[in-house]
Amino acid sequence: MTESGPAGDADLGTVFRALADEHRRTVIAELAADGSDRERTCNSFDLPVSKQTQTHHFRVLREAGLIHEINYGNRKGIRLRRAEINRRLPGLLDLLTAERRGT
Amino acid sequence: MTESGPAGDADLGTVFRALADEHRRTVIAELAADGSDRERTCNSFDLPVSKQTQTHHFRVLREAGLIHEINYGNRKGIRLRRAEINRRLPGLLDLLTAERRGT
DNA sequence: CTTGAGGTACGATGCAAGACGTACCTGAAA
DNA sequence: TTTCAGGTACGTCTTGCATCGTACCTCAAG
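The joint structure predicted for all components is written out below.
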């Protein structure tokens, strides 16, 4: 239900708003930098915020269509929607990885 | 004197925050779509907000390093910083023009 | 079954941001 | 010089959002 974003109704404003936050940008940049696209846990990003706030951030990223969230009940898997992003917003991930590398 | 943004200290968060607003995104998209890069007036964008709010929006765009504002005293010229943007944030303008064309 | 770590739901809070009203400045044209 | 449209400055209102506290849920491991 309601898979919005790059793979759905792709609102560029929603995507930019999602990526305006440094924590969320860090998450996507890390995912984008790892070419293996393996599933990661929310915890593995070491965000310096409470878990409630993390829930919030990952939800924003999901609603922007940037990630998939796989629910296992008591834990959650995160996966970058690389293909959809590159198809609908080509160049976006490059911007993020470039910033992270300190261009 | 504080030329921030793509041509200066390029904070991607500031740029995304600037482009998260639909009015500002419209401005940049229109500028990007016009290859002639001619100078335009603030009025020529027909933003459905008051002139005070327009002043605000153009300031945000300037502080994000996306436009130049040429002050003539009682009127103002707007110019896209295309070269700097394409150098520091390649692909960004394409994302905006693509959205506007209804990709 | 109990425990505990990972997650969510809901509410509260503090702050940033969009929008406008009023007042004022600037310069071209009448 | 008077007028007036274009812009700015400042204050205010309202909305959105990042953050956290409290409470509850879920499942795997004892």
